[in-house]
Amino acid sequence: MCGIVGYFGKKEAQPVLMEGLRRLEYRGYDSAGIATMEGDVIRITRSVGKVSELAALIKEGDQSNVGIAHTRWATHGKPTESNAHPHRSNDGKVAVVHNGIIENYKELKEMLQRSGATFVSETDTEVIAHLIRHELSSGINLVDATRTALVQLKGTYGIIVMSSEYPDYIVAARMGSPLILGVGDNEHYIASDASAILRYTRQMVYLDDGEIAVVGRGGFDIRTLGNKMVEKEIELIDAAEAEIQKMGYPHFMMKEMMEQPDVLLNSTRGRLDVENGMAILGGLRDVADRLRDIERVIIVGCGSAYYAGLVGEYMLEEYAGIPVEVELGSEFRYRKPIISKNTVVIAISQSGETADTLAAVREAKEKGALTLGIVNAVGSTIARETDAGVYNHAGPEIGVASTKAFVSQMTVLALFTLFLGRQRSMSLVTGQRIAKEILELPDKVKEILIQQDKIGDIGLRYKDVAHAYFLGRKYCNPIAMEGALKLKEISYIHAEGYAAGEMKHGPIALIEDGFPVIVLAPKDSVYDKSMSNLEEIRARGGRVIMVTTEGCEIDRNLVDDVIFIPKTLEMLTPILAVIPLQLLAYFVTIEKGLDPDMPRNLAKSVTVE
Ligand code: M6R
Known about the structure:
Bound molecules: 5-amino-5-deoxy-1-O-phosphono-D-mannitol
CATH topology of the largest domain: Glutamine Phosphoribosylpyrophosphate, subunit 1, domain 1
Helix content: 25-40%
Number of domains: 3
Oligomer: single chain
CATH architecture of the largest domain: 4-Layer Sandwich
């Protein structure tokens, strides 16, 4: 959840590391720090707040060519300067940055305190610095001291370590938190996320759990915790630098919402055979026969990915006729799920690094299920650990609030439905109709995006509300929950999403004069029922924003505002219905003077349990 970056090479390390931190800031931004090493001196600067606040403290003229840096999302201890990374040993000779959680840090801390270490932070990370120092004092070198320290840790880590006693190399290691080694021309980069170093190199080596990279003047080597050397392939990452810039938009979230028509094109490019009503999913080719025999689908994900999964449940059950369950990653393994070899577990994750979803994948594999990934980040852990999968091709999503990735997750699920449905009893005509409608989605999304001024006006009028409900039925039920998540996570307005039919079972008690309710009522098979819910809200004085299909005659006495979306197949309606909700959340947030890209307490990628 934090971001780490390291450099060993011939450039000045400080600008490289600061640039890396800026690009990683979306992973955590409550404090940041940098350590550079010149000869036998390690210089550390840390600050509370965003990377720009650290930048203001950095002194020019640092000539060092080696360094490590960190941007933090607090887990242990408040965001203070003393809790910010890098952490160091008491003699200042070992410095560490860490992403993850050390579960047994209390026991280790007590042991280290007994042998004389003094702790100056409340973090779990500080034990790593003291522990490595402790191991070094037995006379072993930094690589062995790091290895020996790491085998004593329980929990997750992506770390980079440097020591002024070993200026010729730095050490990085991974266990449960992503870490990538970037290979340049006589220089090396290490980062928790490729975006930090993409502007310098596209040649990457992905570390696996339990691996340690030693990076120095002579190049790099990778070994296991047991000191066995490992040969790794250098992979060429294909991602345009421009994709991780704001491109003139005020926020990444706005840029990413506006990219959605292109994202739909990219997620479906080359994957639809309209004539044969089929989806061509190359990533599933090797498991296509096994998929034919699948009797049950379990979808796992967290946050928005989970809601996309719920949409997938409606799609797959209706059109592929397979029983589907959708499970939160964080609940899956604790529920002791019953899995047979005819179960397919589909993990949905934008980052491909979400710890809870990854744990679910590992649990499912252990139990013999076929595992598939619907993942956006190419080469991420979930993408690599699942048996097969389909990439979203949505491009990097930087805004904490998922927008384009969510839309592409639902789109890939629609392709997946076509794929599994046509393997079973879906008719050619139905397959053709779905394929054709999917291809029309990009233009339909454009029609919604051009309504942004109107939605901005609505946002202005709702910026001071304290609560809101989002209601939807059937395919729009998960969209109600997604709309509520979007609003609450960036505007801090308390919002809840409900299946509209649930209103009368409790939530309606809160409706009184002026209570805001966003009702998703497209012209679909449950339209009349949704309208009845709308009238019930109105009868109690609720203030209604309705999202419905173009051409619907709406009694303006029943609604305060109405946003129209184009007509499409019912199963594809969620892909359109979510767009106005994203825009609404964005504009309310802007009107409140908040930063939608970096909401408080959140980070883009949740790599801790
Ligand atoms: O990277 P993932 O798709 O696995 O992330 C899952 C959730 O953390 C993510 O969707 C989160 O809920 C977003 N902030 C929602 O906007």
